[in-house]
Amino acid sequence: MDQTDSYPVKLYIYDMSRGMARQLSPLMLGRQLDGIWHTAIVVHGKEFFFVGEGINNCPPGGTPLGNPDSIVDLGSTEVPADIFMEYLFSLAESSYSSDKYNLFEHNCNTFSNEVAQFLTGQKIPSYITDLPSEVLSTPFGQALRPLLDSIVINPGGNNITGQR
User: Fold this and answer.
1) Catalytic pick from 38, 44, 58, 106?
2) Which of 33, 64, 95, 104 has its CA 20 to 30 A from that of 52?
3) pLDDT tens, position by position, 97-149
4) Among this protein's residues, is 108 annotated catalytic?
């Protein structure tokens, strides 16, 4: 393999609220939220994301969420697919195992941010990673936290731990 091979890396962004956050957040939270974001990293022809059952993948845009609401070009990586998969397996056995999922503190966006930095040195946009603290800084967010902590987002896909 030529040492200069590079692979495009994209961030797929989905609004889990399907536009409802934009409409209801001023009333419920007293501030505007543009969406409730689910993100995934697309590289090597697959979409990778962290959910309540661990690290999953699917063809790009292949979850029940359909096509992403937006796509951010994170640049490119020289990390080949085999090394990337070994990296993901190590994450799946440690910091991104299914029991580590938490809607506010350790979620799909935490995963996307960490993987983006591994692949490209770039972070994902802060409006995504700052969302949990924005919600929790409101009285309504604090009141809903016990309920929201119990929610696990799972848009489908195949768990990577069975793909070795």
Assistant:
1) 38
2) 33
3) 989 998 888 999 999 999 999 999 999 999 999 988 888 888 877 887 777 66
4) yes
pLDDT at position 46 is: 98
| Catalytic residue (one of 44, 58, 106, 108) | 108
Q: Is the pTM of this model over 0.90?
A: no
Q: What contacts 142, CB < 8 A, 6 or more positions away? A: 136
φ/ψ (deg, to 5) at 99: -75, -5
Angle (deg, nearest 10), helices 108-120 and 81-92: 140
The alpha helices in 50-136, defined as continuous H runs, are 81-92, 108-120, 126-129, 131-136
- 120-134 burial, b for 16+ CB within 10 Å, e for fewer? bebebbeebbebbee
* Continuous segment of H or E residues that includes residue 38: strand 37-43
In the numeric block, which tokens belong to residue 148? 């929201």
